[in-house]
User: Fold this.
Amino acid sequence: MAVKTPELAYPKHVSEDADLVARALGVASRVFLFLDYGGTLVARGRDGADPPSELSRYLGNLCDSSSLTVFVVSDRSAREIRQLLDVRGLNIIAQGGLEIERWGEDPVYPVDPGRSGSLLHRLELELHRHLRNLADLRIENRGFSVTLAGAPGAGGPSSEAVDRFAGLVKSLDTGRVLELRYGEDDVEARIAGWNKGDAVKHVLREADPEECLAVYVGDDVTDEEGFLAVKEWSSGSESELGRSWYSAGEDDDEESTNAITVLVAPSPRPTTASLFVRGPEEVHELVSSLAAVATALL
Assistant:
């Protein structure tokens, strides 16, 4: 069976389409805003530190808008994000999509850990045993995943630690129910079969693409799943990539869309996102502009 793979391209900077917010909101009655945490809302490397106090105020202002539904997306647990961000009305997609928590509601766990829960517990115990002679490591079991990271301030785990981690996963996971995710500062073994994109589509399943706007902003390779999810939702198709924000044809400059995808990176790189910004400060500027227009128009 032939499988269509995502087409990567270099995105343009948001400043090259300065009126995108007004154009996109011109046909929307509600906005779903998905914001990655580490590397997007806060600088990469600070995602485990206490965030600036103004970040909670900033997110609180967004959540106060009746026209915005705001989700913070993270590989951390919802409990960890709540501890970092004391924001009333904030919704969370946590553990890379395996935990969905709407404000005031019980968490939703789309994947039943089942036998995987005991496997992850055993992996955690074995990691402590096999890595005890290596310094500056942190092992975390979040229920749906086990993560190996460096101790605070120590950087990521050593290549030896990562190799031992991967070897243990391979030897213990005989049923191949886990997948490995390699980040800049950690490596994770998580239950396979559900990701950030699946969680985004779960949230948007009752949203009408004809009336709503979905915006996803992220910096990580796993955020490509979120970019694709909002594009698929916008087209009403699970198999097509959906309409991008901007088409290359000269006659398409004014085409409206219901999906905006924004990569956060110092410079553009191949991605499925259509736009990019250079860091958290530009993320805040973009989202603040979106919120201001949404408050005025919706």
About this structure: Confidence is low (pLDDT under 50) at residues 239-256. Helices lie at 20-25, 53-64, 78-84, 114-130, 159-172, 196-204, 223-235, 280-297. The first strand starts at residue 12 and ends at 13.
